[in-house]
């Protein structure tokens, strides 16, 4: 069953139960009231009959029913020995033990339903006094219940018709309400099916502010996030293809030159060595670029479940590697222990990239200042610095400022720093150093920080 059908069925069931209970309560109430009214009327007539001038048992039985306002009744006197007396034997009411008990004085009155020749009667009995010889009597009145049964039958019919109509209307209303209320859900379903079939991440129109509208807003936000992820992926692929094209073209050119030289007698030893060195450098650059792309493509969770490491030791190892690669640059380090929970390889790569970037932009014999205090790693150089326009973009993938375009690199080093910091619950920022150069800052929470939770 569809959700719409289930909602309609539940509405019909709920209204059907309510209508059924209401009709049953009304029927029972009316039936009880009618029965009470008939009983009260019969008892009142019986009491009036025994209190009339004809109340003497000897005369009461010989009076026509109209004399005691009982034309629709059967009337009789029942003596304590069980002998009935009536003016017309054909109109004798049904009688039994309860009426005899009233005649004998053991009961004040009796009210019950009896059948005579298959016809139901409501029978009441009240004491009617004594005759001259001292025998006690009871006055018995019996009224047919045919009119009451007709009224109750009509009430049952009306209740059944009204209940059926209520259930039909409730079903129609439930289906209509379900169709209107579930329209946003149907739109969400169609939108999801459209995305799955076409791949087009088009948001849907949202109206209202209820729970379904919130679901639609969340769906649109998910589509926006997917669209942004797809855009970033396309940009990464395009930028990576552009960056890979340069070293591949250079390597192919060098290999073509080697092949042509071999066909024409070969190159001089120095030229051949230079060509091979250039090809090897391009292969190293290509390998580094591929490694950077792999690093950026990782989607590791935050480092909450990794080992505890001292960030100062990681930075010292990175300093050792960068000093060997940049012997003309001086490094002044002031490192204080800071325990973090994370991946030493990722953090080492990030620290190395920060130091390599500072060494690349530092002038010959310049000094790079490295400080680590309370989880804040500052790397300052004495280079040209970073302009205000570029500070917000230097950590983007493949972004290279105008000053860096003539230098080696792919524009992925600082993007890797940002990715590593964010994977460890930290952040990065660019600023200006006191010397006027660039200042790159990476902040990481300690192992006991709630930022890792």
From TrEMBL:
<protein>
    <recommendedName>
        <fullName>histidine kinase</fullName>
        <ecNumber>2.7.13.3</ecNumber>
    </recommendedName>
</protein>
<keyword id="KW-0472">Membrane</keyword>
<keyword id="KW-1133">Transmembrane helix</keyword>
<dbReference type="InterPro" id="IPR004358">
    <property type="entry name" value="Sig_transdc_His_kin-like_C"/>
</dbReference>
<keyword id="KW-0808">Transferase</keyword>
<dbReference type="InterPro" id="IPR036097">
    <property type="entry name" value="HisK_dim/P_sf"/>
</dbReference>
<dbReference type="GO" id="GO:0005886">
    <property type="term" value="C:plasma membrane"/>
</dbReference>
<dbReference type="InterPro" id="IPR005467">
    <property type="entry name" value="His_kinase_dom"/>
</dbReference>
<feature type="domain" description="Histidine kinase">
    <location>
        <begin position="239"/>
        <end position="448"/>
    </location>
</feature>
<dbReference type="InterPro" id="IPR003660">
    <property type="entry name" value="HAMP_dom"/>
</dbReference>
<dbReference type="InterPro" id="IPR036890">
    <property type="entry name" value="HATPase_C_sf"/>
</dbReference>
<dbReference type="InterPro" id="IPR003661">
    <property type="entry name" value="HisK_dim/P_dom"/>
</dbReference>
<dbReference type="GO" id="GO:0000155">
    <property type="term" value="F:phosphorelay sensor kinase activity"/>
</dbReference>
<feature type="region of interest" description="Disordered">
    <location>
        <begin position="427"/>
        <end position="453"/>
    </location>
</feature>
<dbReference type="InterPro" id="IPR003594">
    <property type="entry name" value="HATPase_dom"/>
</dbReference>
<keyword id="KW-0418">Kinase</keyword>
<dbReference type="Pfam" id="PF02518">
    <property type="entry name" value="HATPase_c"/>
</dbReference>
<dbReference type="InterPro" id="IPR050428">
    <property type="entry name" value="TCS_sensor_his_kinase"/>
</dbReference>
<keyword id="KW-0597">Phosphoprotein</keyword>
<dbReference type="Pfam" id="PF00512">
    <property type="entry name" value="HisKA"/>
</dbReference>
<keyword id="KW-0812">Transmembrane</keyword>
<keyword id="KW-0902">Two-component regulatory system</keyword>
<dbReference type="Pfam" id="PF00672">
    <property type="entry name" value="HAMP"/>
</dbReference>
<feature type="domain" description="HAMP">
    <location>
        <begin position="179"/>
        <end position="231"/>
    </location>
</feature>
């Amino acid at each position: 069953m569809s959700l719409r059908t289930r909602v309609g069925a539940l509405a019909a069931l709920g209204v059907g139960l309510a209508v059924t209970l209401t009709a049953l309560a009304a029927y029972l109430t009316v039936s009880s009231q009618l029965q009470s009214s008939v009983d009260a009327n019969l008892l009142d007539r019986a009491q009036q009959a025994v209190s009339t001038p004809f109340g003497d048992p000897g005369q009461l039985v010989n009076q026509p029913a109209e004399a005691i306002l009982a034309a629709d009744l059967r009337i009789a006197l029942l003596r304590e020995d069980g002998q009935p007396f009536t003016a017309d034997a054909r109109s004798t009411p049904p009688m039994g033990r309860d009426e005899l008990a009233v005649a004998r004085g053991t009961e004040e009155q009796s009210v019950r339903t009896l059948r005579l020749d298959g016809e139901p009667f409501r029978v009441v009995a009240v004491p009617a006094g004594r005759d001259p010889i001292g025998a006690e009597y009871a006055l018995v009145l019996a009224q047919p219940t045919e009119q009451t049964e007709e009224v109750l039958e009509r009430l049952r019919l009306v209740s059944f018709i009204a209940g059926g109509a209520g259930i039909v209307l409730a079903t129609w209303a439930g289906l209509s309400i379900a169709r209107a209320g579930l329209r946003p859900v149907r739109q969400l379903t169609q939108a999801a099916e459209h995305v799955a079939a076409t791949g087009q991440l088009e948001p849907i129109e949202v109206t209202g502010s209820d729970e379904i509208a919130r679901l639609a807003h969340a769906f649109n936000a998910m589509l926006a996030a997917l669209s942004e992820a797809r855009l970033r992926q396309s940009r990464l692929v395009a930028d990576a293809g552009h960056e890979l094209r340069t070293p591949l073209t250079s390597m192919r050119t060098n290999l073509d030159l080697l092949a042509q030289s071999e066909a024409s007698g070969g190159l001089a030893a120095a030229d051949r060595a230079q060509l091979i060195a250039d090809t090897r450098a391009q292969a190293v650059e290509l390998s580094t670029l591929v490694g950077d792309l792999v690093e950026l493509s990782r989607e590791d969770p935050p480092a909450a479940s990794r080992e505890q490491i001292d960030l100062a030791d990681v930075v010292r190892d990175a300093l050792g590697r960068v000093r060997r690669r940049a012997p003309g640059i001086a490094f002044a380090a002031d490192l204080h222990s800071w325990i973090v929970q994370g991946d030493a390889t990722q953090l080492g790569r990030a620290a190395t990239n920060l130091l390599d970037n500072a060494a690349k932009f530092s002038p010959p014999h310049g000094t790079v200042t490295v400080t680590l205090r309370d989880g804040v790693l500052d790397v300052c150089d004495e280079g040209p610095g970073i302009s205000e326009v570029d500070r917000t973009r230097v950590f983007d993938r493949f972004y290279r400022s105008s000053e860096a375009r003539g230098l080696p690199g792919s524009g992925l080093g600082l993007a890797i720093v940002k990715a590593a910091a964010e994977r460890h619950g930290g952040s990065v920022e660019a600023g200006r150093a006191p010397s006027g150069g660039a200042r790159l800052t990476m902040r990481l929470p300690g192992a006991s920080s709630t930022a890792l939770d």
